[in-house]
Amino acid sequence: MLTEAQQRLYGFMLKRLVDHDQSNEVLQLTNIVLCRKANDFKKGTNFMAWALTVANFQILSFRKKQSRDRLVFSDETFDQIVEEDGKRSADTPSRLFHLKDCLKKIDKEDLKLLKMRYEQRLPFKEIAVASHKTSNAIRIQAHRIRNRLMNCVEKRMRGELA
Prior knowledge:
Layout: H1 2-17, H2 20-36, H3 47-66, H4 75-89, H5 92-103, H6 108-119, H7 124-131, H8 135-157
């Protein structure tokens, strides 16, 4: 169960912490706690709900330790993110289904940029060097691609063909 939960736990953390490295760190801490408290989990109950509760406490603990850093969300902002995430969680499978269709419609150059950024996790500077463009041009291109994909998914969610 823990193995299957990793992607969802990571996404849960990334939405709240934003930073990939911090999310990975908290995911590891959460996995340790989940393993230590495995006997506390009651079979027949919702493992994911239990794991997300443990993850949430780990995030709060991590945020408390990181509160001296220069960029930390206020508690109010953090609560808004959590609230908004709760609204979106229900339609995530449908959004992902539509996103796959929308990704099929973008051109090869845009798809290459997305893969470099999100699969290989390359910084914009490295993508710019590989593409013979400026870092700013790559950022703008990525922003436009994300907007096109978001609009496509939203149209499909409303029942319109995009």
